[in-house]
Amino acid sequence: MTEAQTQPQTVVAFDEVKSLIGKSLGHSAWREITQDQVNTFADATDDHQWIHVDPERAAEGPFGAPIAHGFLTLSLLIPMWSELFDVTGVRTKVNYGLDKVRFTSPVKVGSRIRMTVTITDVQEVKGNGLHLVADGIIEIEGEERPAVVATFLNRFYA
């Protein structure tokens, strides 16, 4: 979470989650993508393609600068989601998966991104659980097209 933000913007009790269907949770704080972050991700995933890790060569490449890996940008969905939403009265929270993920625009190193989220569905599941479906858009500051558009799935068990 950002220093200015000590708790999620929307916090609801387990029994209130269904009331959020169709509601926007707003947007997370802006976060800058740094070259150190990109390099660390490259090391972790063994993806050292020059468009990510060679700033001089990338400056001459198709994007005019090094860009973040799409999966790095996608992975930041988790901390941004945590800024936006939490459920109280649960014993377990699970990232259940993703549907319909698209990397619609590259994120240049030095850019700032944030996420907006809308809850699209909540269904009961076995084990006193809720399956929550959310549409997330990771925006790039100053850009028309978003970086990532994804439907992500979460489960909460009371």
Automatic annotation (TrEMBL):
Residues 19-128 form the MaoC-like domain. InterPro entries: HotDog_dom_sf (IPR029069), MaoC-like_dom (IPR002539), NodN-like (IPR039375). PANTHER family: MAOC-LIKE DEHYDRATASE DOMAIN-CONTAINING PROTEIN (PTHR42993). Belongs to the enoyl-CoA hydratase/isomerase family. This is MaoC family dehydratase.
